[in-house]
């Protein structure tokens, strides 16, 4: 029995297979045969567009992707067409759901005082030194009930989904004590259980040193000896993250946290190079899947990264909101470094949930092509989370996570900034019931 028949037979017990056809533009993001690893170089310019495309879905997974005429001639489809639920997707641009691989959704309030101070001319570091920044979110998270935090996270997950995002990495990081950090991770888990998409939880206890810590080194010891072991024991996190930066954690403290994560079989990722340049060599030995921000990176580090599968995740929403210089995207891309894009959704430096807006910033401010931006926002985001086997492209066997845009051309996704043209979002083969979305296909 073929793999397609097995998949369909297993799904038929619960619901009929779904056939999406007559898709005006279908972007599969699939790599050419024989290519493996995150997309880089010229590979980031190929979104694999298909006119008049069709996708056959069963059991929440993709069974087949073909041009519509070829799909309708498929022997299995011809034999079972009466059993299929069909949707005419003419007038739609369809692509894999966005993979937002860097977010901070566990907080209780916006940081409006920081916002006003920044408008008045204070820098990110000046605001932090005055008690604003990350520390300003501590009290709310520490006092909040787990259920209330979970409700906040669920609201933003739904907001992200309404704009085409189907996979989200979600960090703790505003509790900065063992009890509050673990509570934040439990809130992420509760929200994820009520959402149809995929959530990847990350422990970011090493976000900054809290004001009530005896010392930076003492706090790092707490992260390593309390937070990481307990998060691993309870299965609350898949990653450990560290903000390696002046005013946060030194490279020596960072490697201490990364080593502790490895001892408990947790993967690692880092905030790196946002405000100042950091040495990569001590960090790369811990095999991070992603290095995020990287606004400050030297030519020799770019050459080093070009020969590795570490994904550099650029977060232009933070650069926009803070008024910082943008990361050297073109240098990274032209050198062959695999690049992803994410929102960095958080209350202090990037309060946006919109991946289309991030793609627009990538094009207009970092000179990425629309194709490079969309690849970075889908398949390379999946690689940054280790989910490339199931997310980020449309090929048989992968999860049926799709975003539908009522547009004529995929380049309009980053073109129309500040507007949401996402008509529908599908997660695991099912359309989401979300405010503002109206699919409007003939079925």
Task: Describe, in plain words, how this protein is organized in 3D.
With 443 residues, the chain is of the alpha/beta class. The protein folds into 2 domains: 3-97 and 393-431, Urease, subunit C, domain 1; 98-384, Metal-dependent hydrolases (TIM Barrel, Alpha-Beta Barrel). The chain has 18 helices and 16 strands. It has helices at residues 3-12, 68-73, 75-80, 112-119, 124-129, 138-143, 146-161, 178-193, 216-233, 251-263, 281-284, 299-305, 316-322, 329-335, 355-366, 370-376, 379-384, 412-415; strands at residues 18-27, 49-58, 61-67, 85-88, 93-96, 98-100, 165-171, 198-206, 239-244, 267-272, 290-293, 311-314, 339-341, 402-405, 422-427, 430-431. Helix 9 packs parallel to helix 10 (251-263). It is globular.
Fill in the keyword field for this structure.
443 residues, alpha/beta, Urease, subunit C, domain 1, TIM Barrel, 2 domains, 8-stranded parallel β-sheet, 18 helices
